[in-house]
Amino acid sequence: MKSVRLPLGLLGLALLTACAGEYPQSSISPTTDFADTIHGLYVTIFWWTMLILTGVWIVLAYILVKFRERPDSPKPKQIHGHLGMEIAWTIGPALIVVAIAIPTIQAVFATQEVPEESLVVEVIGHQYWWEFRYPENGGLVTANELHIPMGTPVSLRIHSDDVIHSFWVPQLGGKRDANPLRQVPEGQDLKYNWIHFTAQETGTFMGQCAEFCGDSHSLMGIRVIVETQEEFDAWLGDLAAGHPQTVTQSQALNATTEGLPAPTAPALAQEETGQEEAPPAEDPGTVEGRNLFLANCSACHAINGVSEAGVIAPNLTLLGRRSSIAAGLLENNVDNLVRWIGDPQSVKPGALMPGLEYQGGRPPVVWPAFNLTPDQVRTVANYLYSLR
Length: 388
Ligand code: CUA
Known about the structure:
By secondary structure, this protein is α+β, with helices and mostly antiparallel strands. It folds into two domains: 24-65 and 84-233, Cupredoxins -  blue copper proteins (Immunoglobulin-like, Sandwich); 242-266 and 281-385, Immunoglobulin-like (Sandwich), CATH 2.60.40.420. The chain contains ten helices and twelve strands. The chain has helices at residues 2-19, 33-66, 83-112, 229-241, 249-258, 265-273, 284-296, 334-342, 344-347, 374-385, and strands at 119-126, 129-134, 140-143, 145-149, 153-160, 165-167, 176-178, 193-198, 203-208, 221-227, 324-325, 330-331. Strands 3-2-1-5-8 form a five-stranded mixed β-sheet. It has a three-stranded mixed β-sheet with strand order 4-10-9. It has a two-stranded antiparallel sheet with strand order 6-7. A hairpin with a 5-residue loop joins strand 2 and strand 3. The longest helix is centred in the N-terminal third of the chain and has 34 residues, at 33-66. The radius of gyration is 29 Å and the shape is elongated. The termini are far apart. Dinuclear copper ion (CUA) binds next to loops.
């Protein structure tokens, strides 16, 4: 029995390794120059470690064989202290530490280099979600799913709105603390933390807050969508356009004189083709959902083109396109939106979003519970999910 234990154990280990598959949050499949540098360091140190380990094993094997106990072998010579060896095993590890430190320090400096030109994105940590602002693109804002273009240097300007968080998307690079901004003496710059990198492939990359920040620290995910420049530009354009109320053609024609909202693209297109028919009327559910949003949610949340006053909670423009809600916690669908709006505390303890009265409304850290009926919640959820 004993003889099969080791082979069985090794087989089990091999199977476990084979099952592991793709790691969504792994630093050993880098996709940016920054992550590449870190990975290169890891690989270099790994192979030096292997070399040292092999050397130690060879010496160990030699000693085990050469000095094994034999019948009638004499008692080995007893020694007490050996100056030469003590110096050797102090200097040896010190040299190893120096050998690791040199490339590490080089990598630290290499990854801190500020690119001459880059797309600056402001990353703001909140309990328990992420805000992404594009200061060079009209201050556009999104939440939890960061979009960046491939092949363009990106500079993330990181800070926090409350406690310390840490931005970490392993395939894009190392982690960086998101610290609350302290006041600085006049003339000095605010102390942001920065990450600079250039993404080398498109895809969706997962990350996670990496600094304990409260009850729901572990529920503070990040999704980074790296896309082509064209896709990114189109996304930014859609984000800027938002979801304005569809206006009828006659309203569009009168817009300049009556101070109504500017005509939407479809309305203008129709104007150019000279067609008389009005754009399709809005779905009554959309209108009701939007009105419920305006009455109950817009003090905290913004939707571009609808209401942009609420800035303390995630901006919900293009929400229907996001693959997840609640900072990567739930798949984005209407049922999960209903669940989240109904009782956020049961999903994410400590979230600032108030719940509903009919749910027992777990409230109100700060705000009173909402007073919506289950039907109204579903109407709002449907509306939010329709924002694409
Ligand atoms: Cu934010 Cu941990």
